[in-house]
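Reopening this one. Same input as before:
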Amino acid sequence: MQRATHCVFRHGSVRAFYPLSAGNVPAAINRGNSSLLCRKYTVLPPPRDKEEKAMLDSMLRVDHAGEYGANRIYAGQMAVLGRTQSGPLIQNMWDQEKMHLQKFNEILGENRVRPTLLLPLWNVAGFLLGASTALLGKEGAMACTVAVEESISEHYNSQIRALMEADPERYTELLQLIKEFRDDELEHHDTGLEHDAESVPGYLLLKTVIQAGCKAAIYMSQRI
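Same output, byte for byte:
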């Protein structure tokens, strides 16, 4: 299987994934204040059988759905809080989620994996969740971020364990990608706590309800 050259553009805490070609190297590289790390790789190995293909398809489908939902949540938060002092903080986390979604869009296309049929539902539900919690103020938005990012990072951890138990060498690139995205989600989780998530009235109840919804969304997106 031919391996294409892919690169990771790094500028501070911001990352973006690029297939390397003549015209798409970020201009910041030429100014010397960013870096571009490249290597030849494919994220997924060719599936050995139908069972492995189904397993990987389900894994990628739910990961794509999770990143899609997270993008819609941050969009809802920005619709309410975008012009407040919290706007830049939320935008920074949203920018990272956009990069995650961009990468999963690429992987699904390259490997002919269809996304979940529930994306229209997650489109609306994610935006409403983000906007409604943001209406509680910055603390409500941060509480939502803590609940969602904790759920996503725990889900990524379960995938990491499954891939490590199956064949860590075979899934090296996929493991690296999931670990990197997991670390970003944990960073967002910690950011939410640092910005008064726990001070919103009814924090524990709100967190429990949101995480129950996340678990249901994960279950359905794996199967539909």
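So the earlier flakiness isn't reproducible anymore. For the record, The helical segments are 27-31, 50-81, 87-110, 119-134, 138-166, 172-194, 203-223.
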